[in-house]
Amino acid sequence: MEEKKNQKQQWEKAYQNNVDFFGEEPSELALSVVGTLEMEEVERMLELGCGQGRDTFFFARKGFDVHALDYSSEGIELMRSKAEDGGLKMDIGVHDVRDPLPFPDESFDAVYSHMLLTMELVEEEISYVLQECLRVLRPGGLNIYSVRNDHDPHYGQFLHVGEDMYQNPMGFVVHFFPEEKVRRLSEGYLLEWIKEFEDSSPPFVKRLYEVVLRKPER
Ligand SMILES: C[S@@+](CC[C@H](N)C(=O)[O-])C[C@H]1O[C@@H](n2cnc3c(N)ncnc32)[C@H](O)[C@@H]1O
User: Fold this and answer.
1) Is 98 a member of any domain?
2) How many whole angstroms from 126 Cα to the centroid of ligand 1?
3) Which residue has a Cα nearest atom 12 of ligand 1?
C-alpha cells in the first residue's frame, strides 16, 4: 500500500536530483503580478517557499530588494551559489514557515509565495502563516500568493491524506483550495482579488488561484 512521505525529504531529494525542478523561467504568477508590485512602488519584499529561486532571481534582476526563505537547504544552497556566480546580492535563508518569521513588525512592502500554502499545511497552519505575513507587512502592503484549486486535474486524485489534501505519485502532498477557503483565510486583510490561472511549468499543468490581499491602512 502507498505510504505518506516526509515532505521536507521529498523536496530535498527533488532539488538534489534536478537543479531546475520547475524550469528556469519565472512562474506565471511572478509574470502576472510584477506590474502590480511596480505600480505599488514595492521596494522590500519577502518571498516564502522560494524553492530553487526561479522567481527570486527574476524579482532581484528587476531591482526589488528580495528576502527569500524555504525549508529546503538544498534549494537555498543552490540559490546561494547561483547568486554569487551572477553577482546578485540577496538575503536567503532556511526557514520553516510553521515557525515565527525572523523579521520585525511592518518590515516589508510585500510578501509573495507561489505554491507554498498549497503544500502539506493544514488550515490552522496556513492561517498562522497568513497572520505572520500580516505582522511583517507595513500598513497598505500586499500579500500575494497562489494555491492549487479544486478545478485542478489532480484534485481528488491519488492518496487522500487530509482535508482537501492528496499525495501525488511523485510523493508530494498538495492542499487544494475551493474559493470559499481562500475567502475564509483572508481574515484581517482586504481581499483585492482572486483570479484563476493555469501554470504549465514542469512537471504537469496545474490550475491555481492568484490571490492578492492588502493589509489595511491604520
Ligand atoms: C511547489 S514548490 C514551489 C517552489 C517555488 N515557489 C517555485 O514556484 O519555484 C513549494 C516549496 O515550498 C517549500 N515548503 C513546503 N513546506 C514548507 C514549509 N513548511 N516551510 C518552508 N518552505 C516550505 C518546499 O521546499 C518547496 O520549495
Assistant:
1) yes
2) 13
3) 49
**CA 51–ligand 1 middle distance (angstroms):** 5
172, three cell numbers? 508530494
Count of structural domains within the chain: 1
**Atom in ligand 1 nearest the alpha carbon of residue 113:** 6
Residue 2 maps to a domain: no
pLDDT in tens, the chain (218 residues): 578 889 999 999 999 999 999 988 999 999 999 999 999 999 999 999 999 999 999 999 999 999 999 999 999 999 999 998 888 888 999 999 999 999 999 999 999 999 999 999 999 999 999 999 999 999 999 999 999 999 999 999 999 999 999 999 999 999 999 999 999 999 999 999 999 999 987 788 999 999 999 999 98
In Å, how far are 22, 65, 67 from 203, measured between CA atoms? Answer: 7, 30, 26
The pTM score is: 0.97
Is 84 part of any domain? yes
CATH code (residue 175): 3.40.50.150
d(CA 3, CA 84): 39
- The region that residue 128 occupies, defined by phi over 0 for left and psi between -120 and 50 for alpha, beta otherwise, is alpha
- Which structural domain range is residue 12 located in? 7-17+25-214
Residue 177 lies in a domain: yes
Sign for the CA dihedral angle at 46, 35, 52, 196 comes to: positive
CB of 116 shorter than 6 A to ligand 1: yes
